[in-house]
C-alpha cells in the first residue's frame, strides 16, 4: 500500500540492503501504471518517490492548468475521472486521480525517499541502489521519472540582467510577477496558455513563436484526441523527420479551444520570431515568425482534410464546419515582424521561459545512454539488461506522453520483465558426464 515516509530520514550505516525484484523509481503516472502491471504479473516490486505521489502535477504547473486531453480519453482504463467525460481535468484533479488510483491498486509506494545511485553489480545479475533511506538490491530497475526533470532556460539573457526570469515550471499566476510587461519564450501548450492568461490579466504580453504543430482542438463535433485515434495517428512510432523538436500548440483551457495565433494577436499579444540573442538590453528575433505560423497552419488544415475524407469514406453523420478552414489574414505583427526589441523600453520586466525540460539521469550510473546522454532504448528496453525507461515522449508511439499511453507502455515493459524472469529462472537438468549414457548402454549390448 502507499506509504508516507518522512523525507530526509536515514537508515543507520551498516544496515542490510532491502531485497526487491523490481525497483520502480518515480510515483507519477508512469510509476503507478508500472506498479499495476507488475502486480498483475505477480512480480515483487517497490516504487520509490522522493516527493509526494504525482508531485509534478501539484507544484510544477501553473494554477489554471488543465489536462490537454478530455477526461474520457486521457485516463487509466480502470478508473474514470470524477468530472464530466468531455471536461478537461484541472492539475489538482489529475494529481488526486493518480493518488486515488495508487491507493486503488494498493501500489507499494514509499514517498520521501530519493534514489541517489543505481550501479550494476559486478559478476552477477542485478543492481545495487543507494537511497536516502538505505541500500536496496534489485534484479530490475525501471526509471519512471519521465521527461520533465530539469527545466531548460537557454543561455540567451544573462541571469544578472535587470529582468525577472523564470521557467514555466515555476510560473503559477500573473500576480507572482512584478508589475510590467512580460515576454513569453516558447509557443507550445505551456507558452500559449501562459501568454493568454497574462494578457487577460491586463499585462502587455509578447510571445516568441518557434516551429510548432497546431492541431484543431475539436472538429465537426469530435475532439482532436478522437481524430488522432480514428486516423491511426496515436500509434505513429516516431515524429516526422525534421519535426523531432517541434512543439504542439493545443489547449484544454476554458473548456478547450483551438490555439489560434491570429486570435492571440487580436487579443493584444505581440507575436515574435524565435528569441536568438540579447545584447545591451535588446533582444534579437529570428526572421522565421511567418514561416512558423504558416507551417502550423498547414498541419492544422491537413488534419481537417483528413477528417473530412474519413467522414466521407465512412458515411458519418457529423455536422459540417466549413468556417474552420477559413483562417483569415495574418496579423500585422506577423507580416511585418519585429526583428529587435529593447525590452525595457517596451515595458517588459519579466521573461517566462516556456522552453521545455532536459533529462536528468545522473543517479542512473549504468551503460544505458547514447553519446549525448539520452536514454538508449527500444520501446523502453535499454541496452543494459535489467534497466527500463518509462514515461518518455515517443517511448513507443505518439500517445506515450498521455496517461493512457504510458499505461500501455508499462504493460509492455512488465511483459518484458516477466520474460526475463523466466530466462533467469531456467535451470537445466544437470547430467554427470562420467555416468553412462543411453547410447553407451546400447553399444555395450551390441558388443555382447
Mean pLDDT: 91
Low-confidence blocks of residues: 3-14
Main sheet characteristics: 9 strands, mixed
What is the helix content? 25-40%
Could you say which structural class the secondary elements and strand pairing correspond to?
A: alpha/beta
Alpha-carbon distance between the termini?
Answer: 70 Å
How large is the radius of gyration?
Answer: 26 Å
Total number of helices: 10
Total strands: the figure is: 25
> What spatial form do the alpha-carbon principal axes imply?
globular
Approximately what portion of the residues adopt beta-strand conformation? 15-25%
Structure description:
The structure is a single chain. The chain is 27% helix and 21% strand. By secondary structure, the chain is α/β, with parallel strands linked by helices. The chain is globular, with a radius of gyration of 26 Å.
Please tag this protein with its features.
448 residues; alpha/beta; nine-stranded mixed β-sheet; 10 helices
Give a short overview.
The protein has 448 residues and is an alpha/beta fold.
Topology, element by element:
Elements lengths: L2 E2 L13 E8 L3 H12 L4 E5 L5 H5 L31 H14 L4 E3 L3 E6 L6 E5 L4 E8 L6 E2 L12 E4 L13 E5 L3 H12 L4 E4 L3 E2 L4 E2 L2 E2 H7 L16 E2 L12 H6 L3 E3 L2 E5 L2 E4 L3 H26 L17 H4 L4 E3 L5 E6 L3 E2 L5 E2 L11 E2 L2 E2 L4 E3 L13 H23 L12 H10 L1
Parallel strand pairs: 1-4, 2-3, 2-7, 3-4, 5-22, 7-25, 9-20, 10-11, 10-20, 11-16, 12-15
Antiparallel strand pairs: 5-6, 6-7, 8-21, 13-14, 17-18, 18-19, 23-24
Helix pairs in contact: 1-9
